[in-house]
Amino acid sequence: MAKRLTKALRGKRRWFGINVNNKFSTRNQLAEHLNLLSKEFELTKTIRLMDFELSSGGEFALAIIEVKLQDSKLLRANIEGEKAIENFGIQSITTSGKIRLVRDRLNLTKKQ
Question: Can you give the CATH number for the domain in which 28 is found?
Answer without folding.
Answer: 3.30.70.3250
